[in-house]
Design goal:
290 residues; D-amino Acid Aminotransferase, Chain A, domain 1; D-amino Acid Aminotransferase, Chain A, domain 2; 2 domains; 9-stranded mixed beta sheet; 7-stranded antiparallel beta sheet; 8 helices
Length: 290
């Protein structure tokens, strides 16, 4: 399925309140969200037919839109229900849901206040982000030349499509260098995250994660922090230096797509997939399959 282009897949997409055949769910070339990045989105995994943290994701979709001065024309409960119907209509139980909201083609220009906000929800079957053997030893990261921007230069609290371009560039850079993903620093030089997932490190049994003051405070990130506290693992949010990261005992990434992904190497520094990572991974698997 992964080799089939998304515009050639069968199924149904919820589009502005109605279902369309997936091949027909299209929008006009002169769409504001395409030209000026006025688009927000979510990624939600469904396990055994149940989307994990469904309402929290769709609440964030609304918050992201508000940050971009957009009003989503459907309330959270409506989008929740539509997500469940997308799964049912496409006969999917373990899948990835993609709700998005964007300004349409009603006007074209940098000011988008006259454009209608459109909403669509798609779903596709998607297994683990990385292969099991890679997860066993941990993925490799290389430091990117691209940095996470200062919050007064970009809407960093929003899951806005435009913010992911630097992640795409960082990931391409990593792929070309033979690594699985990128390590991104922030505008001050502190450790931020990967190209699209939050980062944690373990030192002497304690969990540390960067303060999300210039990148997205992920829902999986928040879930893992809660699980760690439940397990009696001390958690601290702090600005993490590159030297501190190099001295870590364990490193892992978190995200809806990545779930909990161990890191085995950053640049030339090797890490062990250790007991804290394994414990939290087991707890997370239990939580999403509950």
């Amino acid at each position: 399925m992964g080799a089939i282009p998304f515009d050639q897949r069968d199924g149904f997409i919820w589009y502005n309140g109605e279902f369309l055949p997936a091949r027909e769910a299209k929008f006009h070339f002169l769409t504001h969200g395409l030209h000026y990045a006025s688009c927000v989105f979510e990624g939600i995994r469904a396990y055994n037919g149940k989307p994990f943290k469904l309402t929290e994701h769709n609440q964030r979709l609304h918050r992201s839109a508000e940050i971009l001065d957009m009003k989503v024309p459907y309330d959270v409960a409506t989008i929740d229900a539509a997500c469940l119907e997308v799964l049912r209509k496409n006969n999917m139980s373990s899948a990835y849901l993609r709700p998005a909201a964007w300004r349409g083609p009603e006007m074209m220009g940098i000011a988008g206040t006259g454009a209608k906000v459109h909403v669509a929800i798609a779903a596709w079957e998607w297994g683990k982000y990385y292969s099991p053997d890679l997860l066993e030893k941990g993925i490799s990261l290389v430091t990117s030349k691209w940095a996470k921007p200062a919050p007064n230069t970009a809407p960093t609290e929003s899951k806005a499509a435009g913010l992911y371009m630097i992640g795409t560039l960082a990931r391409h850079e990593a792929d070309a260098a033979g690594y699985n993903d990128a390590l991104m620093l922030d505008y001050r030089g502190y450790v931020a995250e990967s190209s699209g997932a939050n980062l944690f490190m373990v030192k002497e049994g304690k969990l540390y994660t960067p303060i999300p003051d210039c990148f997205l405070n992920g829902i999986t990130r928040q879930t893992v922090m809660a699980l760690a506290k439940e397990a009696g693992i001390k958690v601290e949010e702090k600005h993490i230096t590159v030297d501190e990261l190099n001295a870590a005992d364990e490193v892992f990434l978190t995200g809806t797509a990545a779930e909990i992904t161990p890191v085995g190497k950053i640049n030339s520094q090797a890490y062990t997939v250790g007991p804290v990572t394994k414990q939290l991974h087991k707890m997370y698997e239990a939580a999403v399959n509950a």
